[in-house]
Write a structure and sequence with these properties.
This protein has 9 helices and 6 strands. It is mainly alpha-helical and about 180 residues long.
Length: about 180
Amino acid sequence: MGHPEATSDYKRPLKAMREFLDGLDLPKDDLVIAALGPKMLDLAAERTRGTNPYFITVEHTRFARERVGEGVLVAPEVAVVVDPDPESARRTAREFAKPYLGLSNYTSNLLRFGFTERDLENGGSDRLIDAVIPHGSPEAIAEAVRAHLEAGADHVCLQPLGSDEPSEDYRALAEALIA
């Protein structure tokens, strides 16, 4: 498996994931896969408890919920930057996004959701960065998390970026989300 750009041992993802799941001796409720595309989301709904997609937008969360249906876990992981300065926050986000914007599974998914090749260039357009990596105050990020929840997420996993004190970011985000 893996990314074709990153491994010489690349296998077609859907086939490889089916084979991987076939080899596990675990109940469906003990498994979650990081499904992005429609067929992988179908596999998540069919063979696992749900999906934990990554490097996605709120629109993808809505699509995932519609695709897998109710009763299937949708728990996107969202990288965030707690930084009130938009330029600084976008710089941090772009540095983080750089490797993902070189991987076809992520770029194909972004293109599927209305971004253009131009949005993928130079570390990502402001529009792309703002949609994929929420940034700003803890309250602004909490709004983005709530948007994922309103779009059908059961849970949103947060990954704060760029801080020397991630525990402080987690604390501030928790306070904003509880408020």
